[in-house]
Amino acid sequence: MGQSQDDWEVLWCHPGFYLTAERLRSHLPPWCRMRLVDPSVPLRDQVATAKVLVPAAARITPDILDAAKELRLISQAGTGYDSIDVAACRARNVPVCRCPGLNAQSVAEAAFGALLAMTKKFSEQVQAFNKTTPGVVVGVQLAGRTMGIIGMGSIGAAMTKMAQGMSMRVISTRSSSSRAELEHLLRESDVVSLSCPLNDATRGLIGREELAMMKRGSYLLNFARGAIIDRQALIDTLEGEDNPLAG
């Protein structure tokens, strides 16, 4: 109470997501002011007067924390915080907060939209209609097929409702699930959807061995972090002669 408008500076650290930044600005109390990062200047050279950092997709490293002499809080405008060095924050007594579930429904809808685009071959269908050859391209019916969801947080729960609404069977794993349960999911699922957080346990979770377990003609959706899949293993699988994936 009694603080002036200049008392708290909130720095939006990523050069993007500006609509979200403006929405946040509109909800700030009068004693807070938001500043947008200058992408032409290193972030560590812009944090000295900030009391709150909002990383978005920016990486918050120890050197940035050391330069932020007035820092009181790091507030992530989303669910993931893998771009923040949490251990370094803890060592400097800087609290980190996030917004779990904030965009879970939107992410789940985007993931399901991508699945429909792949299985119904929307792009190929449009091309076929433009060439007046409808019926040449035939998609896949999802009803009756199995979706395996790895990670049953807010996004996984939303995906479950959508899949069940499409009359799909759903199986899932959580962080507490065993290796045997993961292997069962990979072998049984027509669609494997990743919605788990990125951490030491999930980094590279889907590698060569796991990709080889998947059903022939199955689909892999990753609307979580890219590093959950071994990138080179995925490339080699897609380019290999024994690729089980349809999309």
CATH architecture of the largest domain: 3-Layer(aba) Sandwich
Largest sheet at a glance? 5 strands, parallel
Class derived from helix and strand content: alpha/beta
CATH superfamily of the largest domain: NAD(P)-binding Rossmann-like Domain
Note the beta-strand portion. 5-15%
What is the 3D shape? elongated
The mean pLDDT is: 92
- CATH class category label of the largest domain: Alpha Beta
| CA distance, first residue to last residue | 56 Å
> Uncertain segments of ≥5 residues (pLDDT<50)?
none
- List SSEs in N-to-C order: EHEEHEHEHHEHEHEHEH
Counting DSSP H or I runs of 4 or more residues, the number of helices is 9
CATH-derived topology of the largest domain: Rossmann fold
Total strands: 9
Summarize the structure.
GO terms for molecular function: glyoxylate reductase (NADPH) activity; hydroxypyruvate reductase [NAD(P)H] activity; NAD binding. The chain has 247 residues and is an alpha/beta fold. It has helices spanning 18-27, 62-67, 86-91, 104-119, 122-130, 154-165, 179-188, 208-213, 231-239, and strands at 8-12, 32-36, 52-54, 73-75, 96-97, 146-150, 169-173, 191-194, 219-222.
